[in-house]
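Worked problem 6 (solution included).
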Amino acid sequence: MSIEFFDVMKRFGDHEVLRGARWNVPTRACGVILGANGTGKSTLLRILVSLAVPDSGTTRLAGATTPLQRRRVTGFVGHTPPLTPALSVEDNLRFRARLAGVPSEGAALDEWLGLYDLAPMREKLARSLSRGQAQRVALASVEIGAAPVVLLDEPFTGLDVEHSERLAGRIQAWREAGRTVLLTTHDVARGLDVADCVAVLTAGKVFEVPQEERRAPDALQRLHRVLAG
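Solution. The predicted structure is:
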C-alpha cells in the first residue's frame, strides 16, 4: 500500500512549482514532507489525490494509478477542512459515510465522534466551528471506510496540544492497521515526532533526510535553517 510519485512537474504560468519531484513512502509507514509555506506541498498532495493535474509525472497510491482509483483508496484532508457549512458535525460525518458506502449509525458514529472529542458538539453546524474544531471533524472523516492511504495537508493546523497528541496517536494506530500515511507540515518538531521517513520539499524537488541526520542533536536547528532558505 505504498505511496509513490516520480518526476512530477507542475507549472502555474511562469512559476514552476514542482520540478521533477519524486519520493516513495513504504507500506504501513508515515512519511512527512517538510516545507515552508508556498513551496508546493499542497499542490503535490492535490496531485496525488487527483484534485489537480500534473504537467507530467507518475503517481501511484496503493497500486492505483488512474484518478478514480486513487480517490477510492485515499482518505484526504486538505488545507481547508472539506465540510458542508449548513450541516451539523454529526450530519457531515453521516454524509461522508454515505459517500463511502459504510453504515453511520450507533457505535460507528459514536466512535468517530469520540476519537476527536466531538461528541459535545455533534449538533453544532459546521459553519459555526472554530478552525481547530473543523479540522477535527475533517480528521474524523478519514476514519470512515479506513482507506488504505491517508494524505494530510498541514493536519496540526488549529489543533491545541491535546488534540495534536490525539492525532499523533491516530497516525500510529493507522500504521498498525496497515494504512500508509503521507502528511505535509512546516512544523519540524511535530513532523519528526510522527515520521518513519522524512523529506524536504524545496526548489520544486523532494529531498529525503537520512535517518542519521534526523537523529543528530542539532537536527531541529538544521532543518529549520533549510526551511528558512
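Discussion: Residues 36 and 228 are 7 Å apart (CA to CA).
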